[in-house]
Structure formats: structure tokens, C-alpha cells
């Protein structure tokens, strides 16, 4: 029943996907079934991205379709499913940098995969990361930054987390325009990723291992 | 309508020679002595030989992108540089004097803060205005053009910019929504309605802010010109002399924003393509005018949204490349050498972007495999690049030297290569910049 919805989502046919989702809901399908169909479509989209068949625009479009379908469903379910079971991720763009597109895609992918994400936004000083770690208790901390000035901010943030005695409680990943293994080494983060899917993979790996 | 900007015109080669000669002469540059003039001309010759691909230059020209590095190096903040033109000039001179790259990077990207203040620019945040004093200005992503406005842009780009875009991106220019539509003003009854908007109090205030901003921009230009004369007078040609952008980036960066333009590639395919086409002539004219004013041959063209990962190969060939190629051809027709700065990775685009006339373009790469670039694009165009920023920021001089040696061996083989940084060098360790320049000048000699 949901096959045509999955296909439309995977093939980036927005109008068709929305029409099909609405149809299913109007016909009395369980909203959770529709959401599950969306999840499996997102998985396929992610796989195509990894294979190099899909690119950022496809992730953006997938996110946009998912957002619209979630909005259709929201009034129908009292509580949307929460990702507590899969683990918590804290994410933010480091001090001095106001770019957020890459970060937002990582957030979208993590949420679509059932993780509970707290996004503290852009231009966040080290202290804010520490504060949020204390409050939110994430397993993973993601730091984003596009500019070279982010290297030092990331390094400082890792240090501050360490000084706060929280370093052993979290795994830290970094990502953004000029980030490489060399930068990871410089900042003291645990890992880095060249794209959003790599971020998702790291989080999966870490939450499975430590769960 | 006739097809334009598809084939290079027969006179393009001749025009390029003329422009090279003009640049080489360096008329109007106050050289400190004959030695400085000779050094200037030698450096132009290095770049000319590298670009034209006829013979290897005497050595690999070394021209990193200064970016915001000179401020950091001189110990001044970005705020100082954007508001105190004397401090800017000093930082610029110290950087060029100490590092001695083969070309001078004009500080025209260090825009005057007061002009932005007066016009109340919304597109960016700058030091003291959203970002802290020591930070560089940064772009604010938003949908400055709405999805349903594509047709208005296509109908009349100029009117769209004046009536819709400017009021959104300049807080002080909101009254331009009432700026008259010009083509109808060609008959006597249409003269009074044309004049009316300019009598309104708010429009007068907007015109005043333009006047004040213009005066400040002129003061800044005077200062920048002096800085240029002092540095060029010491024997260093400018690396570029104008600025333009790929039509897709005009829309993707500054009109629709990254997310929206990506969705438009699915939702508004025809309008997006037509809008890109529509912007080509303006983007050509903008670079031609700037190069004419500066006597330079290379307009700088930073490329953003076409990088690896930002779109599929099919989307690149459909939405990004056709209008960019026409821009390139249009500039070559004017005798100019487009300096295409492909920031990020361009590994998946190398074959398609090789389709440019030989010896008339510079392709400047960042995180692209230079060996493959040499085998593909390098057959048709001069390559520039690509000492990576992670290395310059966190590596050691020895590591930088190792990288430069291999880069010159691979990309510099038989000429057609300008050694540069992968991006603006802000954040780099000064000793790494020095190592990159000194080593490459020596190692890059062709025998």
C-alpha cells in the first residue's frame, strides 16, 4: 500500500509523494505506517547518496517532502515518536562561524533516523557547548564550521569540554568545508566527516558501540 | 533570437594580445625605479606564458590568495581594516613586502564598513555588525527573492533589482519600491509620473543615503588605489582586476539561497534555467567594465554551488554549466581571461569544464585532484592552485614544502600552471606562507 509513496519519495517526485501520503491518510491508514514508509524511503535516499547517485539537492528535497508529510500527520498523533531509544546528539556551529546549511542537513538525517538531536545553532562559544552537554547529556557532540577560523574555535571547544571533565562522556565529531583528518588531529576531536552521511554513520557507530 | 556566446569570435585572440600588452606596459603605475618596472614586466610575462599555453614560463608564478590573512599578520582586526583605510594599507603593504608573492591581491574584497552601515546591508554580517571585531564578514542565508518571483526577474532583471531586491537587501533603500519603470517613459504624459517618486520625503532620504555612501566609497577607492600604486610600483602586477559570478551562483547565493535553489532544481526547472540565461549579459558587462577601468585582463570569478556534492552531474550540465560557459565565452570575446576559482572539489566536473577554448582561461582549484586536473582541463587551460588550507593552517613548513614540490612536479609539468593556495589564506601560519612562496619560486624554475 505504501509502495508507491516510497517510490515517489525516492524518485524525488514531490507532488506525487504528497498526493499519495494524503490519500493514504484520508483512507484511514495508520499514520505510523506512513511515517515508517517515509523512513524506509529516506534510507534508500541515503544509500543513493553514499553511492554517489544522489547529492545535496536530493537530500534537501527529501527533507522538504518529509517535513510536509510530518506536518500532515502531526495533528493525527498525540506524540510524535521520539528518538530517545537511539541516543542523543548535540550539535552546533562553533564560535565565529554563522554557517548552518551543512549542520542542518546532518540534523535532518539524524532525526530522520530516529536520533534525538539538540541543535544549539550558530556562532556558539565553547561554554555553550559545555552547558548544553551538562543539561542534555548527549552521547555525541557534533561541531560544524565552514571557515578556517573554525579550526581554533573547535580546538578551544574540545579543550573546554575536557576542562569541564566531560570529555570521556561524549564522542566528538567535526565537519564542514575545509575539515580534514589534519584538522581533526589539530582540534582533538574523535572523528571527522566529509559529508552529512558520514556524520550519520559516525553517530550510528558510536551509539551502537556504547549503548 | 540569435544564439550568443556559444562560439568564440575570430577576433578574440587579437583582443587578448592587446589586453596583455596593455597590462604588461603598466602605464600609470608609479614604479619606484627601472628595476621595479622590469620586475613587474617579468612577472606579467610569467603569468602570460602560463595562461597562453604556448611555452612554459621562465618559472612557475606563485600567487596565493591573500584573503583576510594580511590583517591577522599585521595584528589588526577586521573592524580596523574595514573602517580605517590607513590601517588597511599598512597591513597590505607589510604582507606583500614580507611574503613577496608574484602578484598583488588588491584589497577590494575588504569593503568599507561605513558604506555598508549607511546602506544598512542585510545580505552580510560584518565586524561590529553581527560578528565580532576580529572576524571576517559572513553571508546571511535567506530567500531574498521568492520562488514566485522568477518571472519578474526574467521579465526585467534591472527593474526587479531596483524595485524588489534592493529594498530587501538595503534597509536604507526601501523607498526604491516606487522607482519608476523606465521603458514606458518615452512619451510626454509619462514624464510627470516618472518624476513624482523622487519628490517624496522617504525617497529623498534614500537618495541622500546613496549619495553619502557613494562619497565614502570614493574615499575608499582613492585609498585602495594608492595602496595598489605603492605595491605595484615595487614591481608586483595585480593578480586580478575585476569581479563577476556564474549566473547560477547569482541566483543560488544571493537571490534564492542554497536550500531554495536546490529545491528549485526540482520544482522550477524552466524558470531557473531561463533566469540564468537572462543574467549572462549583465555578468559579462560587469567584468568588462571593471577590467577596462583597471587595465587588467583577469576578472576573478568565485564559483560556489557547482562544486562536487552540491549537485549531480546531470544537474551541473543542465543548470550550472551552460550559462557559465556562455559567460566564459562572452569574456573571452572581449579579450579577457576568466579566472575561475572553483572552491571545494571539482573532481566530478573535470571532463565537462575542459570544454573551453585553449589558452584563454585560468581554472583555479581548491580540493581537486591536480593530477587528474592536469590530464583533463590542464590540456585546454592554465591551472592554478591548490595548497590546501588545512595544511597551511595546521601543518609545518616542511610539510608545505613537500606538498608544493609534488604539486609543481604534477601540475606544473611543461608550464600552464600558477601555484596558489586552495582558498583565501586566513588562519595560516605565517611561516607556512613564507615556505610555500620561497620554495616554489626556487623549485619552480623551468630548465
Structural class of chain A: alpha/beta
Major sheet summary line of chain B? 5 strands, parallel
Structural class based on helices, strands and sheet pairing of chain B:
alpha/beta
The CATH architecture of the largest domain in chain B is Alpha-Beta Barrel
Beta strand % of chain A: 5-15%
As an assembly, this protein is heterodimer
The CATH class name of the largest domain in chain B reads Alpha Beta
How would you describe the shape of chain B? globular
What is the third-level CATH name, the topology of the largest domain in chain B? TIM Barrel
CATH homologous superfamily annotation of the largest domain in chain A: Cobalamin-binding domain
Identify low-pLDDT runs of chain B. none
Describe the structure concisely for a colleague.
The complex is a heterodimer of chains A (211) and B (447). By secondary structure, chain A is of the alpha/beta class. Helix content of chain A is 56%, strand content 11%.
Report on this structure.
The complex is a heterodimer of chains A (211) and B (447). Chain A is an alpha/beta fold. Chain A has helices at residues 3-10, 14-26, 31-50, 56-73, 101-112, 126-136, 149-163, 181-187, 196-210, and strands at residues 88-93, 116-119, 140-144, 171-175, 191-193. A 5-stranded parallel β-sheet of chain A has the order 2-1-3-4-5, with helices on both faces. In chain A, strand 1, helix 5 (101-112) and strand 2 (116-119) form a beta-alpha-beta unit. Chain A is elongated. Chain B is of the alpha/beta class and 447 residues long. Chain B has 2 domains: 1-65 and 239-447, TIM Barrel; 78-94 and 111-235, no CATH class. Chain B has 19 helices and 8 strands. In chain B, the strands form 2 sheets. In chain B, strands 4-5-6-7-8 form a 5-stranded parallel β-sheet. Chain B is globular. Chain B starts with 11 loop residues before the first helix and ends with a helix. The interface between A and B is medium-sized, with 32 and 33 residues.
Amino acid at each position: 500500500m505504501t509502495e508507491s509513496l516510497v517510490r515517489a519519495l525516492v524518485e524525488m517526485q514531490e507532488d506525487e509523494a504528497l498526493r499519495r501520503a494524503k490519500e493514504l491518510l484520508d483512507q484511514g491508514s495508520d499514520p505510523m505506517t506512513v511515517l515508517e514508509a517515509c523512513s524506509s524511503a529516506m534510507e534508500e535516499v541515503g544509500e543513493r547518496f553514499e553511492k554517489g547517485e544522489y547529492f545535496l539537492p536530493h537530500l534537501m528535497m527529501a527533507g522538504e517532502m518529509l517535513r510536509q508529510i510530518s506536518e500532515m500527520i502531526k495533528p493525527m498523533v498525540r506524540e510524535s515518536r521520539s528518538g530517545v531509544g537511539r541516543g542523543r546528539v548535540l550539535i552546533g556551529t562553533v564560535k565565529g562561524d554563522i554557517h548552518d546549511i551543512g549542520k542542518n542537513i546532518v540534523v535532518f538525517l539524524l532525526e530522520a533516523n530516529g536520533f534525538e538531536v539538540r541543535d544549539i545553532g550558530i556562532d556558539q562559544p565553547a561554554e555553550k557547548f559545555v552547558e548544553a552537554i551538562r543539561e542534555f547529556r548527549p552521547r555525541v557532540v557534533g561541531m560544524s564550521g565552514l571557515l578556517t577560523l573554525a579550526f581554533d574555535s573547535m580546538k578551544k571547544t574540545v579543550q573546554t569540554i575536557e576542562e569541564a571533565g566531560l570529555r570521556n562522556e561524549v564522542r566528538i565529531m567535526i565537519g564542514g568545508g575545509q575539515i580534514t583528518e589534519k584538522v581533526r588531529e589539530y582540534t582533538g576531536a574523535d572523528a571527522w566527516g566529509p559529508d552529512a552521511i558520514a556524520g550519520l554513520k559516525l553517530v550510528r557507530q558510536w551509539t551502537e558501540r556504547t549503548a | 533570437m540569435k544564439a550568443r556566446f556559444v562560439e568564440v569570435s575570430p577576433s578574440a585572440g587579437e583582443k587578448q594580445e592587446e589586453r596583455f600588452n596593455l597590462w604588461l606596459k603598466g602605464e600609470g603605475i608609479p614604479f619606484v625605479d627601472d628595476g621595479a618596472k622590469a620586475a613587474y614586466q617579468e612577472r606579467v610575462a610569467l603569468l602570460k606564458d602560463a595562461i597562453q599555453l604556448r611555452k612554459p614560463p621562465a618559472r612557475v608564478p606563485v600567487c596565493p590568495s591573500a584573503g583576510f590573512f594580511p590583517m591577522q599578520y599585521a595584528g589588526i582586526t577586521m573592524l580596523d581594516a574595514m573602517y580605517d583605510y590607513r590601517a588597511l594599507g599598512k597591513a597590505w603593504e607589510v604582507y606583500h613586502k614580507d611574503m613577496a608573492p608574484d602578484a598583488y591581491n588588491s584589497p577590494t574584497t575588504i569593503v568599507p564598513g561605513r558604506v555598508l552601515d549607511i546602506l544598512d546591508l542585510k545580505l552580510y554580517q560584518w565586524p561590529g555588525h553581527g560578528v565580532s571585531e576580529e572576524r571576517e564578514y559572513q553571508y546571511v542565508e535567506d530567500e531574498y527573492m521568492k520562488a514566485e518571483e522568477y518571472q519578474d526577474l526574467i521579465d526585467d532583471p534591472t527593474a526587479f533589482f531596483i524595485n524588489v531586491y534592493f529594498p530587501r537587501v538595503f534597509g536604507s533603500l526601501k523607498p526604491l519600491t516606487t522607482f519608476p519603470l523606465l521603458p514606458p517613459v518615452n512619451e510626454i504624459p509619462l514624464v510627470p509620473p516618472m518624476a513624482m517618486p523622487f519628490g517624496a520625503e522617504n525617497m529623498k532620504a534614500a537618495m541622500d543615503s546613496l549619495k553619502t555612501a557613494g562619497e565614502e566609497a570614493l574615499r575608499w577607492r582613492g585609498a585602495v588605489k594608492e595602496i595598489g600604486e605603492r605595491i605595484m610600483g615595487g614591481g608586483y602586477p595585480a593578480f586580478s582586476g575585476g569581479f563577476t559570478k556564474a549566473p547560477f551562483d547569482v541566483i543560488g547565493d544571493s537571490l534564492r539561497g542554497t536550500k531554495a535553489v536546490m529545491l528549485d532544481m526540482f520544482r522550477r526547472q524552466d524558470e531557473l534555467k531561463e533566469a540564468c540565461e537572462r543574467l549572462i549579459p549583465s555578468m559579462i558587462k560587469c567584468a568588462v567594465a571593471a577590467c577596462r577601468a583597471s587595465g587588467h585582463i583577469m576578472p576573478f570569478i568565485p564559483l560556489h554551488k557547482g562544486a562536487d556534492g552540491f549537485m549531480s552531474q546531470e544537474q551541473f550540465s543542465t543548470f550550472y554549466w551552460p550559462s557559465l560557459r556562455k559567460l566564459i565565452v562572452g569574456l573571452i570575446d572581449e579579450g579577457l581571461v576568466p579566472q575561475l576559482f572553483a572552491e571545494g572539489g571539482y573532481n566530478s566536473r573535470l571532463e565537462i569544464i575542459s570544454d573551453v577554448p585553449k589558452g584563454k582561461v585560468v581554472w583555479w582549484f581548491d580540493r581537486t585532484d591536480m593530477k587528474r586536473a592536469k590530464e583533463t582541463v590542464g590540456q585546454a587551460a592554465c591551472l592554478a592552485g591548490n595548497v590546501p588550507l588545512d595544511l597551511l593552517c595546521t601543518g609545518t613548513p616542511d610539510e608545505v614544502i613537500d606538498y608544493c614540490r609534488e604539486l609543481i612536479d604534477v601540475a606544473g609539468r611543461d608550464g600552464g600552471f600558477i601555484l596558489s593556495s586552495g582558498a583565501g589564506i586566513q588562519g595560516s601560519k605565517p611561516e607556512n606562507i613564507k615556505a610555500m612562496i620561497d620554495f616554489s619560486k626556487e623549485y619552480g624554475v623551468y630548465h
